[in-house]
Amino acid sequence: VHSLPLFLDPASVRCLIVGGGEVATRKLTTLLDAGVECRVIAPVLHKELAQLVDDHSLAYERRPFEASDLDQVNLVIAATDDEGVNREIHRLAIEGGVWINAVDDVNHSTAIFPSIVNRDPVTVAISTAGYSPTLARRLRARIETILPSGMGRLALYLGERRAAVKRHLAEPSLRRDFWDSVLDGSIPDLVGAGRLDEADEAFEISMRGAQVSERRGLVSLVGAGPGNPDLLTLKALECLQRADVVYYDNLISDEVLDRIRRDARRVYVGKRRGVEGMAQRLINEMLINDAQDGLRVVRLKGGDPLVFGRGGEELEALKSAGIHFEVVPGVTAALGSAAFAGIPLTYRNSAQSVRFITAQLSNENSDIDWAELAREKQTLVVYMGLAELPTLTRKLVEHGMDEAMPIAVVSKASYPDQTIVIGTLSDIDERVKSEEVSGPTTIILGEVVGMGSTSSKDN
Description:
Keywords: Cobalamin biosynthesis, Lyase, Methyltransferase, Multifunctional enzyme, NAD, Oxidoreductase, Porphyrin biosynthesis, S-adenosyl-L-methionine, Transferase. About 35% of the residues lie in helices and about 20% in strands. The protein has helices at about 20-35, 45-55, 85-95, 135-145, 150-160, 160-170, 170-185, 185-190, 195-210, 235-240, 255, 280-290, 310-320, 335-340, 370-375, 390-400, 430-435; strands spanning about 15-20, 35-40, 60, 75-80, 100, 115-120, 120-125, 220-225, 245-250, 265-270, 295-300, 325-330, 355-360, 380-385, 405-410, 420-425, 440-445.
């Protein structure tokens, strides 16, 4: 994290602007719009800045900056065209514990002005920590298009009713559910359209119907996809934002975990190869107990929750206990790996079917029909297969598959450091060793692999 976002009470800010040009004018305009007390020091004022000083009766001194000017302020804007002066202001500000914004000089700033989307009292601030003001501006423009102009009116409307809702619903979780239901209903549109009488009527109906008795718990089995947070579904994001507690697996990326509601409890229940994890029975019990306590529980699983995980067992346990549940599908590893490797899993005249299999190949008691797996015109996708790759290739060749059959090993699909190794049954082992492949891995095997990328760099 490069910066700490804060929204300050403007009445607590005493600001000094050093400089009299166009940049100082822009900064002063922003500060005055927020209601900040400002004074200006500069030998000469730009015409527009002079007008602002007159219009707002601001304190202005026509002279160069002096060290004592920082004595009565807690924020200074260094907006002169003299780099040496700006750096001296920075040095003195640091010594005096004063926040400084040195315009276009992030290395000599302890405070940065964000791009603002204003729907007063709703404010969205966007910052790139000074790395790319243009990107911040583009993000602001995008948010401007999706944030309704009436959002401020809605915030005021809801704020005026917070105390009444708190009296009516003492339990915080019930209040959160109530406000979610209000925002999901017709009230925002009614307020935005100025139809306040109808909004009031709808609000009263919602209040009367609010659950003041026992809250019904819910368990959501949510697929997190292959790791890239952009591949989360909208429903998955909604579940993460409403959760009281999230039980998550080993392969959930930090970027996905960052989407969880800040005050939700997080519990790691992951399992890794060669490491004894939490017993599935205990995981099932925790899901059930939390739901019986009226909590919104998310069981967050990599890929899709019902493909090669223990989702089926958890689903069965929830049904047996009479727990309300929902399943939120995710992009399973097979689909994510194929997409990021540019491999179509089916293709006319090459593959009319796809098989998803898990690599339990070393177990001599495993009931695997190798001849069926080795037949033509199909695509095989092997989950968690890196350690079993030599066995997989050997068995398929023994049962009739051509050694020249294309095969892809995709590691960390959708991550920035993903690796895609493409070869044939005869040489893929050596290629994988040469690339030092590690991490979550999916193997794709079939004629369709020849249509994919030849290396990680292609995608």
